[in-house]
Each structure stands twice: as C-alpha cells, then as structure tokens.
Amino acid sequence: MRFDVLTIFPEMVLNSAINGVTGRAIKNGLVQLSVWNPREYTSDKHKSVDDRPYGGGPGMVMKYQPLKDALEGAKRSTGAESVKVVYLSPQGKPITQQLLNENAELDQLILVAGRYEGLDERFISSECQEEWSLGDFVISGGELAALVVVDAISRLLPGVLGDEDSAQQDSHMHGLLDCPHYTRPEVIADKQVPDVLLGGNHKEIEQWRLKQSLGSTWLKRPDLLLGKELTAIEQSLLEEFKIELKYKKVQ
Ligand code: 9WO
C-alpha cells in the first residue's frame, strides 16, 4: 500500500515512520511512504503557504494553491485514476478499528496534514473525500494524526506483522479490550501470575483470556458491549468474571 502525506513538515513524518513496524514494512517494500511539501509548490519569493483569514481574527489559514499543486504532484506520481484524499482534523469522522480495516484494502491513500488554524475551506470541499479525527481534542497539526493512520493501517497489511504478533489478536480487533499480560518474574510485590497461565493448558488459557477481555471491557468501556452481540459462551464467561470479581472484593 502507498501513503502520500501532504505536509509542510515532511521530516517530521519521515523521521518518525522509519521506526518500528512501519519502518520495517517500508524496508520490506510492503508500504511506500512519500511526502509532498506545499512550500515547494509556491511561486512567491517568501514561499508563503499561509495567509490571513477573511473576516479577520487571530492565526493564519493554509492557502489553496500550494496545497492543490502539491496534491496534483502526489496524484501525477502514481497515475491512478481515483485516489481517496483524507484530511485529518478534529472536525472529522472518529477513527475506529473498523474504519482502518476498511481502508487497509486500498492501494493508495493521500493524507492531508494541516497546520495553523486550518485549510482554506475550498480545498477541503473540492479535493478531500473524507475528514478523519483521532478524537475530540486539538493538536498543533495533522502530522501526528497522519502518522497514526499510517501505523495503524500498515500493521493490518499482509506480511507486515509476523504470525506471532498477528493483528488478529490485537485489542479492539474483535470489538473487545485486550486481556492482561504477564512476563517473568512469577511474583512481584506479592502479586502472583494467574495459575492458569502457568499450567500450559492452551484451551483453558484461551478461555481465561476471553473472560478477562470481556470483563475488562465491561469494567472500563461498557459502551463497547452495547453494540455487540455476545455468544452464549461469552455471556457465561462474563457472568463468571462478575462473580469472581465480587468474590475478590469480599476477600
Ligand atoms: C487552531 C486554533 C487556534 C485558535 C483557535 C482555534 C483553533 N483551531 C485550531 C485548529 O483546529 N487547528 C488545526 C490544527 C488545523 C488543522 C490541523 N490541525 C489539527 C489537526 N489539530 N488537531 C488535529 C487533529 C487531527 C486528527 N485528530 C485530532 C486532531
């Protein structure tokens, strides 16, 4: 899959993406990442990518023309007929695992990272098919959000993660939170690793993990369970979790 990021801070995107899972995917040729700097598409001597907002007020707005020309550069470089262009902003649709799963099927995604107080509205309405948000908060620019999208989609692509750490096992892949994890030593400050994990019974371990996932989701994010049909087995595992929790409390 190919990602093209429009940004006036290309180093910020490239320097970050070379690390970890994304970096390995790029080295192995499973992911291509290119950056397009609107500043390189300016023609005035100050290379202005921003200007004052009509109507007044504080801050600056990113100009249409450098963005449009950088976007054309990104589109020309592949020659694909239609490519999805996504603007990262707090006004966007919330990014969920499902949204990412759906978009991991694409051959190419163009991500627009804004700065200042935002982009000229006419670039958003005429050039961006979708607007995506990490959540209801503001950061200083879209680059970190674009990196989040590149990371989260890259790890879904075939061959990027080994079987060992398959994305199928991840928190949120099945609409549930992750179960607790433990590594050596066996006891830390009187806290024992749960017996079942030491027993080596894989069927029991799998059931315990599902029970903990259900219980943890019920405790921490009950909203996730409202939109989800539980199987009979899952329902009884969750009931067991609740009973065990009560028992722990009285002990
Ligand atoms: C800046 C600002 C300053 C004064 C008053 C209001 C203001 N709003 C903004 C603003 O929203 N700036 C944005 C910075 C413009 C678009 C790129 N920026 C951005 C993207 N901030 N936060 C995001 C973002 C992207 C995805 N998910 C969460 C946040």
Summarize the structure.
This protein has ten helices and nine strands. It is of the alpha/beta class.
Characterise this structure.
It is a single chain. The chain has 251 residues and is of the alpha/beta class. The protein folds into two domains: 2-154, SPOUT methyltransferase, trefoil knot domain (Alpha/beta knot), CATH 3.40.1280; 171-250, Trp Operon Repressor, Chain A (Orthogonal Bundle). Helix content is 42%, strand content 16%. It has ten helices and nine strands. A five-stranded parallel beta sheet has the order 2-1-6-5-7. Helix 1 (10-17) runs parallel beside helix 6 and helix 8 (202-220) crosses helix 10. The longest helix is centred in the C-terminal third of the chain and has 19 residues, at 202-220. The chain starts with a strand and ends with a helix. The chain binds ligand 9WO. Ligand 9WO is lined by residues 59, 88-90, 114, 117-118, 133-135, 138-139, 141-142, 145.
User: In percent, how helical is the residue content?
Assistant: 40-55%
Question: What assembly state would you assign to the polypeptide chains in this entry?
Answer: single chain
Which sequence of strands runs across the widest sheet? 2-1-6-5-7
- Mean pLDDT, nearest integer? 96
The count of helical stretches stands at 10
Radius of gyration: 23 Å
Give the overall shape: elongated
Chain-wise SSE layout:
Blueprint: E1 2-6, H1 10-17, H2 20-27, E2 32-36, E3 50-51, E4 61-62, H3 64-78, E5 84-94, H4 97-103, E6 108-113, H5 121-127, E7 130-133, H6 143-154, E8 187-188, E9 191-192, H7 195-199, H8 202-220, H9 222-226, H10 232-250
Helix pairs in contact: 1-6, 8-10
The structure holds ligand 9WO.
Residues 59, 88-90, 114, 117-118, 133-135, 138-139, 141-142, 145 line the site of ligand 9WO.
